[in-house]
Amino acid sequence: LTSPQLRAVLEELHRSEWGGLVGGLVGMTGDWALAEDCVQEAFASALVAWRSDHVPDRPVAWLFAVARNKARDRTRHAVVEREKLRDIADLTPPDDELEVDETVLADEQLRLLFTCCHPALALPNRVALTLRAVAGLTTGEIACAFFVQESTMAQRLVRARQKITNAGIPFRIPSVDLLPERIDGVLAVLYLLFNQGYSATHRSDLADAAIRMTRNVVGFAPSVEDARSLLSLMLLHSSRRAARIGTDGQQVTLENQDRSLWDQSLIDEGLMLLTASDADADRGPYWLQAEIAACHARAPTPGATDWSRIVRLYDALAMLTRSPVVTVSRAVAVGMATGPEAALEILDSLDTDQRLSTSHLLPAARGDMLARAGRHIEAATAYRVAAERATSQLDRQQLLREAHATTLPLRTKLAGTSTSGRRRSTMAQTSTERSFTLTRILPAPRNIVFKAWTDPDHLAWFYNPAMPTPSTPIQVDLRVGGVWRQQMVVDDDLQYPTGGVYLEVVPDERLVFRWGASGGWPDLAGDAELAAPTVIVNLRDVAVGTQLELIVTFPDQLADEEVRTLIEGGTRDGWGATIDRTAGSTAITGWNGHRSDPPE
Amino acid sequence: MFVATDPDAEPYSAEEDRIEEWGKDVGSRGVWIDGNRLRPVEDATTVRVRNGALLVTDGPFTESKEWIAGYDVLECADLDEAIEVASKHPMARFGRLELRPVWPFD
């Protein structure tokens, strides 16, 4: 075996056998920390021993024998001092793997799981201990997944182990009469683990560990519907794993996922676990959520999704959980089933719910529905609020991209007003250039053209000529850091402020500005400014007047793909149409020196 | 096991207080060692020594709506057994019970 191969073998054993090995040792010694340490050391020994020799025929038995011997060595001294061990006889004499019955270790893993999930432990401690003792994650890995300091997590684990020992929490699978409630407790922990791994942190190791443990519970209690439903829910969500992160590492929404990447074998298994039912109302929360996931899994295209069934399932789930998060999801389903306005009405009614006031879910859902309603500027604002509240970096990036993407149709609309611009776009560069340049010759000297760009009395040419002039006045504060702001009316439904923030002002020669307006398009509010394009206007003397050169540059914050979409999707054509109109500025048409005054 | 009052629990009902049944059950199982009801907090006296001076005051040591109304010393195999025994005590309904392991003698 090569080193990487051996490592892979050990990693797989670590994943599948850790809990059983620790459970076996806990059963013998009653000492959790000792059990975890010794199993860890056994894996370290295997890495050395198996490299120089070979992988033993019964690797699990080998690991257990080594861990057990280590536990005995470590406790021998302690035993002399005070009788700590529950069962000394089990630890003597020294043994090898021939004496180990590894087939019982699956049960040991279950005992360990039920003990870790005992209701006498605080929920965060249950989750932490389950990850450490049953799933074999290191303290650092667990701390990282829950955004706490490693020392905090270590302390939490110590507390949990102490409580088990001191309060006498039994190390066993509970008796039949206790089983229903205890299985609920175990499933709650596994559900939390899976969600943390799948949704919050995108830690597939956590999600996989949760699936493995849930499989084990289903194998132990196949008739418990909640356990089967939870496993189904996990498998159906996991089936989308390959599709939900794009090649750029960003999240892909359900609607935009390539469904051919969904893992059909996981979907099949998930659907099979899901017992059919006519009465959704009688079902538990895991079943309802799994069935919602199944509705997506069964739809070959997003358009084929049975949204009205999903609404009914959310209705039942909302009755059961009274969770505001469920209500938000339900509102989105209503929007998909009957139209975004209905969803927005529900979402507005949730504004007063204190439980949602710090969550990104409500504004994110509102952004989605506003965008579907064609209210792009409002949608972008809602997405930006959501991004500010998001706790995970991936969520925040995703929401900022949505904020940006939602104004794309608007830009395409703008481009549609120009025919000359269209023609030019056929000559568009095909590379991933991050800027474009347009030039025009204007029949006036530089000072007049500069006036046309910077004097609020002569900027009306910048308006959309197809629409009536808006009543909002044009503001120009012509200095570095000053704001130029004027209203752009696209059609009866869509208008927004635009303009820019000046970065450089050289009278009659050069104007550089960050293009856009706070709360408008492109948006310059807060962080959005980082993604806003920069526009340079250079004025040069030519024989017949002034050559205007306009350079639009997109910032590094935008991906190549986004820049391409922006350029091809309307900004080039839009600016082409805009500067075509410069010649119509009252500054130029009113200039009376056409013949007499030479250009300066 | 501490037996405590709880303002959020259902109102006490003497007819449904089947403490004798509980006593018989735990007695026959051999888990009950000792126990007593305590007189109300009006009869409590708090004792402190501060800077060498004895300080005796009327009442319990905390101003709280919940107070300890009794105790039972139980000898259980593990926490699950203790929980099961506690869950059958009438005051699990009319008050609340707190299970506290005894510090072992080293």
Commentary on this structure:
The complex is a heterodimer of chains A (600) and B (106). By secondary structure, chain A is of the alpha+beta class. Chain A has 24 helices and 7 strands. A 7-stranded antiparallel sheet of chain A has the order 1-7-6-5-4-3-2, covered by helices on one side. In chain A, strand 2 (475-476) and strand 3 form a beta hairpin. Chain A starts with a helix and ends in an 11-residue tail after the last helix. Residues 88-94 and 415-431 of chain A have low confidence and may be disordered. In chain B, a hairpin with a 2-residue loop joins strand 3 and strand 4 (53-58). Chain B starts with a strand and ends in an 8-residue tail after the last strand. The longest helix of chain B is centred in the first third of the chain and has 11 residues, at 19-29. Chain B has 106 residues and is an alpha+beta fold. Chain B has 3 helices and 6 strands, in the order βαββββααβ. Classes of the chains: A alpha+beta (600), B alpha+beta (106). The interface between A and B is small, with 11 and 10 residues.
Please give a quick description of this structure:
The complex is a heterodimer of chains A (600) and B (106). By secondary structure, chain A is of the alpha+beta class. Chain A contains 24 helices and 7 strands.
